[in-house]
Amino acid sequence: MEQTIEKSIEEKIESLITQSLEKVIEKNIELILDSKLDSYLGKKLGFTLDKNLEQIFKKKLDETIGQQNEHTAKEWLNVQETCDYIDISYKSLQKLIDQGLKGISIGRSKRFSRTEINHFLKNIQA
Predict the structure, then answer these.
(1) Are 11 and 17 in contact (CB under 8 A)?
(2) Which of these ranges, 32-41, 42-51, 88-97, has the smallest mean pLDDT?
(3) Which of 17, 18, 108, 113 is most buried, with most CB under 10 Å away?
């Protein structure tokens, strides 16, 4: 009975070690393949790929996409978002409304169209 338990434990340990080694080998193979691919592409394109440069590029690309999504995601802005969008205070927004900036009221909430804001600001500056 004791030998059966020991054998079972040994088999479990051996199985865990084998699984761990397989994961380590798999990860190393992925890293080697990535490195070889980067090297191959670098030679084909005439440059070496610097991992730091790749990270900087990816971060900037993500930021640019994020900013683009922010600007295009929402057409109708509330009062605070409108002030933030054109970087003005609430009092300045009231002055623009007095000068003709159109918005719509939904209950007690006021909304402004980005398109209308841009059009209004272009006309006011001209």
Answers:
(1) no
(2) 42-51
(3) 113
